[in-house]
Amino acid sequence: MDNVAGFCGGRLLRLKAVVRVSDSVEPILIQSVGTTFSAPQRLTRQPDAPESIIVIARDVDAQALRAAVPDAPVEVLA
């Protein structure tokens, strides 16, 4: 998420991500408004939520974003 925020900078409007980490059975929700992130939250009511990252930004090239975070499951919707 830091790579996305760093790449987008002031162009990042919102970010929402559901990720899995080794020390939690439940998936973790990460959210930001701009580059300010809230505390991660465990999704106890949705233990089978799929991993995903949603980035809402302005004036960001999709291919450049994919290159900045090559291991992330990036899907671009226009």
Strand content: 25-35%
Largest sheet, described in full? Answer: 5 strands, antiparallel
Shape: globular
Number of helices: 2
Q: How would you describe this structure to a colleague?
A:
The protein is α+β, with helices and mostly antiparallel strands and 78 residues long. Helices cover 18% and strands 31% of the residues. It has helices at 2-8, 62-68; strands spanning 12-19, 28-33, 36-37, 41-42, 52-57. The longest helix has 7 residues, at 2-8. It is globular. The model has no long low-confidence stretch (mean pLDDT 88).
Would you kindly provide a brief summary of this structure?
This protein has 78 residues and is of the alpha+beta class.
Topology at a glance:
Elements: H1 2-8, E1 12-19, E2 28-33, E3 36-37, E4 41-42, E5 52-57, H2 62-68
Antiparallel strand pairs: 1-2, 1-5, 2-3, 2-4
Characteristic terms for this protein:
2 helices, alpha+beta, 78 residues
